């Protein structure tokens, strides 16, 4: 009976479902990873950014009747602004006062809880849909998915690819890499570390917002919607390796597939247990994550393209 399940249409459908959800977790993994690897802030408040972006788009349609595309732009803008505000108003003052990583983490956790309660207080616990996407069911063999699913997968990986190329080929991308590698050296050659921190929060919030609006279009927006996706996103980061954005993306895909295939044998309620178990087993074998060792080897090489860039002319430390 088990062999039939493994080779049957159900497994094919679950693999596709895992690829779809894994693409969203990959996007969130890169979102969490670029912030953590640059600032070393365990940014749980990314769940608040995720929720704000979805509500920004959904409420724009609900109350103002704005078409979907402008509403999505507004939702993404809300997410980006909220991420930047969290860095400027919460994290930066805490760093300036000598706050430890633990105190910043606790602040991030508090912001997440406060944001959920605030949204529920202002807008109620009722769900808010984000309608307007022309959704049709597509069938390939025995596998079914929607045009929204296909769009989400394509957009997610396209955005991830564009971000990685931007980081590798632009001056600001090199500046981010410099801060990630050695903050003190980056500061010494004229890079404004605080500005780079704001930049990575903007980028990470944009990616979280994209994942959020796709979730809201496929399902609904609700106050606690960001909790599980962000939980899975940092699992994806540690699976792939905290210094590797491609690793975070691959880790997100693994998380999505594991959570989906769990339903072959167990209730979907056990998916978080399986995902955490997978993380535990992997870190026992490879504590640096799937891509961590390769990243450490790259550090020992002499590839430091940011050193030859004349940063002092445009990016002075604050």
Give your account of this protein's structure.
The protein is an all-alpha fold and 318 residues long. The chain has a domain at 23-225. 72% of the residues lie in helices and 3% in strands. The protein is built from 13 helices and two strands; from the N terminus they run αααααββαααααααα. It has helices spanning 2-7, 9-39, 46-64, 68-96, 101-123, 147-169, 171-181, 183-188, 193-218, 227-240, 245-261, 271-285, 292-300; strands spanning 137-140, 143-146. The chain has a two-stranded antiparallel sheet with strand order 1-2. Helix 4 packs antiparallel against helix 9. The model is unreliable at 1-5 and 294-318 (pLDDT under 50).
Strand tally, please?
Answer: 2
Series of secondary-structure elements, N-terminal to C-terminal: HHHHHEEHHHHHHHH
Q: Give the helix/strand class.
A: mainly alpha
Figure out the total of helices. 13
The residue ranges in which pLDDT falls below 50 over 5 or more consecutive positions are: 1-5, 294-318
Q: Going across the biggest sheet, name each strand in turn.
A: 1-2
């Amino acid at each position: 009976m088990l062999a039939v399940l493994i080779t049957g249409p159900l497994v094919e459908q679950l693999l596709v479902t895992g690829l779809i959800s894994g693409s969203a977790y990959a996007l969130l993994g890169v979102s969490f990873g670029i912030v953590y690897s640059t600032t070393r802030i365990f940014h749980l408040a990314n769940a608040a950014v995720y929720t704000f972006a979805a509500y920004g788009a959904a409420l724009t349609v609900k109350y103002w009747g704005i078409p979907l595309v402008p509403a999505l732009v507004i939702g993404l803008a809300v997410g980006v602004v909220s991420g930047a505000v969290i860095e400027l108003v919460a994290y930066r003052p805490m760093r300036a006062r000598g706050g430890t990583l633990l105190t910043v983490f606790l602040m991030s956790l508090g912001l997440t809880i406060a944001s959920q309660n605030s949204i529920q207080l202002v807008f109620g616990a009722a769900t808010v849909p984000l309608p307007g996407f022309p959704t049709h069911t597509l069938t390939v063999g025995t596998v079914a998915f929607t045009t929204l699913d296909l769009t989400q997968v394509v957009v997610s990986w396209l955005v991830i690819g564009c971000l990685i190329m931007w980081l590798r080929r632009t001056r600001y991308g090199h500046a981010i890499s410099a801060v990630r590698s050695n903050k003190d050296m980056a500061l010494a050659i004229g890079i404004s570390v605080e500005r780079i921190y704001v930049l990575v929060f903007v980028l990470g919030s944009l990616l979280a917002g994209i994942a959020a609006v796709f979730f809201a279009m496929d399902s609904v927006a609700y106050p606690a919607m960001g909790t599980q996706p962000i939980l899975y996103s940092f699992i994806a980061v540690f699976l792939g390796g905290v210094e590797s954005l491609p690793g975070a993306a691959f880790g997100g895909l693994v998380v999505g597939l594991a959570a989906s295939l769990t339903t072959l044998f167990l209730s979907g309620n056990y998916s978080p247990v399986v995902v955490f178990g997978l993380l535990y087993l992997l870190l026992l074998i490879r504590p640096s994550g799937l891509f961590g060792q390769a990243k450490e080897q790259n550090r020992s090489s002499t590839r430091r393209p940011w050193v030859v860039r004349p940063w002092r002319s445009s990016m002075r430390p604050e």
